């Protein structure tokens, strides 16, 4: 072959490489990832999700691709984002952040497998037929985090035993809000406490809720499970500290951000489990044959620095049952 012909052939081959690479990438299975949160504050959770994928033999950018959709705290955007993923189409949709994402995906498609993180009972919500045999195209992990409000109240009263009134920061647009309120009211009634509901579904309403809490001198606060609140955790923790309100939260992320205490599931591990399930589905397992996983461990985290700043005295018993004490 003449040198000039070789150069022309090499140039043609080089020019075609990007097309080949794109063709290979488009041939990869695509996972849709739907979250009501934002990418920046969810980075550590996405890392856990990718770790789960890797455990199942799926590596993003190598043998699978992931399409991310973030609602940025606006639940009303989830149906549109879910529909976008369903139209891609994708091989499986992973939904996090509880029922709003899962319901949006289930509405968008009855055929694409969906792996979801649930905060309440997915059977009661009509997302699966049963925990052991989900049926249909939806399965996942039932965090049960939204059913622990009464337990959180009891733990908070260990630190503020003389409280006779309780504030509940609640997002009324969250699907489980009614059951969260009911659980807290029942637990408070059993403890002889009054409950003042502080509704907040927007950034400004969080400010207003804490203004009302301060005006009414609420001595203790339970922050209900809600992805919007998790995304706003830094703001909520700062406001609680500014108003000297002892508060308990649903996730460790709040306590590490300076919140008083948290009781709930190990969220990164749940994201990891969704990655494992998504990987198994890519290998051919049907979602109907994957039982809904239920967590067996819940974490109690106490921020001792915040305890001291609020002038509280934790009992030795409370500290002994904590999974983590942040000095």
List the helices and strands and how they pair.
Elements: H1 3-27, E1 30-35, H2 43-55, E2 65-70, H3 78-87, E3 92-95, H4 99-108, E4 114-118, E5 138-142, H5 149-159, E6 165-170, H6 177-190, E7 194-199, H7 203-215, E8 221-223, H8 227-231, H9 233-242, E9 247-249, H10 252-256, E10 261-264, H11 267-282, E11 299-303, H12 304-309, H13 316-321, E12 324-326
Parallel strand pairs: 1-2, 1-3, 3-4, 4-5, 6-7, 6-8, 8-9, 9-10, 11-12
Antiparallel strand pairs: 10-11
Notes on the protein architecture:
α2 packs across α11 (267-282). The protein has helices spanning 3-27, 43-55, 78-87, 99-108, 149-159, 177-190, 203-215, 227-231, 233-242, 252-256, 267-282, 304-309, 316-321; strands at residues 30-35, 65-70, 92-95, 114-118, 138-142, 165-170, 194-199, 221-223, 247-249, 261-264, 299-303, 324-326. Mean pLDDT is 89; it is low at 3-25. The protein is of the alpha/beta class and 327 residues long. The chain has a seven-stranded mixed sheet with strand order 7-6-8-9-10-11-12, with helices on both faces. The protein has a five-stranded parallel sheet with strand order 2-1-3-4-5, with helices on both faces. It has two domains: 3-144 and 267-289, Response regulator (Rossmann fold); 146-264 and 298-326, Response regulator (Rossmann fold).
